[in-house]
Design a protein that fits this description.
InterPro entries: Pep_chain_release_fac_I. The structure is a single chain. By secondary structure, the protein is of the alpha+beta class. The protein has one domain: Double Stranded RNA Binding Domain, CATH 3.30.160.20. It contains 4 helices and 5 strands; from the N terminus they run E-E-E-H-E-H-E-H-H. The model has no long low-confidence stretch (mean pLDDT 85).
Length: 138
């Protein structure tokens, strides 16, 4: 059971697959399947409230497939158990990001002084550049 704030996700909704890790590690990497591929179906999970599900699916995250399945690959550590914990921690962090709705942006207009400052800087930059043009030094 994965607990994230007020949401509990049962282990039956998580699919873990153990594969061989890539990278350095010598014989241990070649023999032991320590890397974990954790899959969590966001789209059809009964544990997630609807607004959280919508926010998570709306994210532009490359780990979320077109079917709404989050795939987390963990292979940072040497042991299967530690990689498993790491994958679950990353899943919890991903779900936490969808718990809080972002505050709506309030449109503001630039002040007259900031417009004048910007235009004054543009004028100054233009005169500097104009001064760089070729001169006839005869």
């Amino acid at each position: 059971m994965l607990q994230v704030e007020r949401i509990a996700i049962p282990d039956e909704e998580l699919v873990e697959r153990f594969v061989r890790a890539s990278g350095p590690g010598g014989q241990n990497v070649n023999k032991v399947a320590t890397a974990v591929e954790l899959r969590f179906d966001i789209a059809s999970s009964p544990s997630l409230p609807e607004p959280v599900r919508e926010r998570l699916l709306a994210k532009r995250d490359r780990r979320v497939t077109a079917d709404g399945v989050l795939v987390i690959a963990a292979q940072r550590f040497r042991t299967q158990e530690r990689n498993r914990e790491d994958a679950r921690e990353r899943l919890a962090h991903f779900i936490e990001t969808g718990l809080h709705a972002p505050r709506p942006r309030v449109a503001t207009r630039p002040t007259r002084a900031s417009k004048e400052r910007r235009l004054g800087e543009k004028r100054g930059r233009a005169t500097i550049k104009r001064g760089r043009t070729g001169r006839d030094w005869d």
